[in-house]
Design a protein that fits this description.
Blueprint lengths: L3 E2 L10 H8 L12 H14 L3 E5 L2 H12 L5 E5 L3 H5 L3 H6 L2 E5 L9 H7 L10 E7 L12 H13 L3 E5 L3 H8 L4 H4 L4 E5 L10 E5 L1 H13 L8 H13 L4 H16 L4 E2 L9 E6 L6 H10 L2 E2 L1 E4 L2 E5 L6 H16 L1
Parallel strand pairs: 1-11, 3-4, 3-5, 5-6, 6-7
Antiparallel strand pairs: 2-8, 7-8, 9-10, 10-13, 12-13
The chain binds ligand TLP.
The site of ligand TLP has 13 residues, from helix 3 and helix 4.
């Protein structure tokens, strides 16, 4: 049975064009800055995002960590959302490896952190307090169901940061989903931030990689942080080649994933015993609740697996489905049929 894998967009496989590009990629030693394909990908990403420079790193987690370690010194504080990926799912790397102190503030259901809450979290100049250095945003917001942060909200946070002499890092693992979802140039969403990390291996379907962007000076320092974390690569052009195809060919089609997620959400809303807020289906991630408690969570997952559907059990009675390049409209209809049959049992 071919499985319909909705656990994450990280399960995407490289396309044939990526495999071809990887096979013929020009390479060199990136430790010396001599890999032509890596250099090209970094230049392309910086240009796309309206940033000065970029750095290829192996994963989204390392991209965020390199950024935090580059922006912040030991004991300095980072303001970030309480359900941000950096806070929840990156192994506490900022503290474990950087002695950086997280100051969490509640994320709203739309992925934002209210401005007044950010402002209240900024420390006064007092010898008892750590120094606030950085504010982190996430766009799209994973735990908030792929919610999009608007250009206006981002600009407000950037303005506050400037006013208070702070920096802004954007976890833009799925920033292209946000741009496509809003129908704006991605630069509208990165304007003014000091750094942004963008994943190649999620909706864009490349096998490996994230690109961290920022100023020339920031990236020069980030290169050192990457090396320290063991993320310095050599003939990484074979990986960057897939990233170039991802940027050239895979961004526009994200709209298809968003339409599929919306179709899925609307279908789920019609199934008795499942609860979803259809209006939250903005991009490629949906969350829904199992409200009918006559079926256990494990039975729910097992019955779906038996029918060829994989999903992510995100929290008690809460499940996540993510659409991506490997999912067609027909798969959505099969998934809805399977959900209906499981709930009818
Ligand atoms: N998200 C993954 C993992 O949590 C398994 C997923 O399935 O959604 N920022 C955001 C917003 C992310 O969603 C992720 C990964 C990362 C960073 C980290 O990227 P990787 O997995 O490449 O380290």
């Amino acid at each position: 049975m071919t499985m319909i894998d909705l656990r994450s967009d990280t399960v995407t496989h490289p396309t044939q064009a990526m495999r071809d590009a990887m096979a013929c990629a020009g390479v060199g030693d990136d430790g010396f800055g001599e890999d032509p394909t890596v250099n090209r990908l970094e230049a392309m990403m910086a240009e796309r995002l309206g940033m000065d420079a970029a750095l290829l790193v192996p994963s989204g987690t390392m991209s965020n960590l390199v950024s935090l370690l580059t922006h912040c010194a030991r004991g300095e504080e980072v303001i970030l959302g309480d359900i941000s990926h950096i806070f929840l799912s990156e192994v506490g790397g900022m503290s474990a490896l950087g002695s950086v102190f997280p100051h969490i503030v509640p994320n709203q259901p739309d992925g934002t952190i209210p401005l007044e809450r950010i402002e209240a979290a900024i420390r006064a100049d007092n010898i008892h307090f750590p120094k606030t250095r950085l504010i982190c945003l996430e766009n799209t917001h994973n735990r908030c169901g792929g919610a999009i942060l608007t250009p206006d909200y981002t600009a407000e946070v950037v303005a506050l940061a400037r006013q208070r002499n702070l920096l802004v890092h954007l976890d833009g693992a799925r920033i292209f989903n946000a741009a496509v979802g809003l129908g704006v140039d991605v630069r509208e969403l990165t304007r003014g931030v000091d750094s942004v990390s963008v994943c190649l291996s999620k909706g864009l379907s490349a096998p490996v990689g994230s690109v961290l962007c920022g100023s020339k000076l920031f990236i020069a320092h980030a290169r050192r942080s990457r090396k320290m974390l063991g993320g310095g690569l050599r003939q990484a052009g074979v990986l960057a080649a897939a990233g170039i195809v991802a940027l050239d060919e895979m961004v526009g089609r994200l709209a298809e994933d968003h339409a599929n997620a919306r179709r899925l959400a609307k279908g789920i809303a019609r199934i008795k015993g499942l609860v979803i807020d259809v209006n939250r289906a903005q991009t490629n991630i949906i969350f829904f609740d199992l409200a009918d408690r006559r079926i256990s969570e494990s039975e729910f997952v097992t019955h779906l697996r038996e029918q060829g559907i994989l999903l992510h059990h995100a929290a008690p009675f809460r499940f996540r489905m993510v659409t991506h390049h490997g999912i067609r409209e027909a798969d959505i209809d099969k998934t809805l049929a399977a959900l209906e049959s499981v709930m009818r049992k």
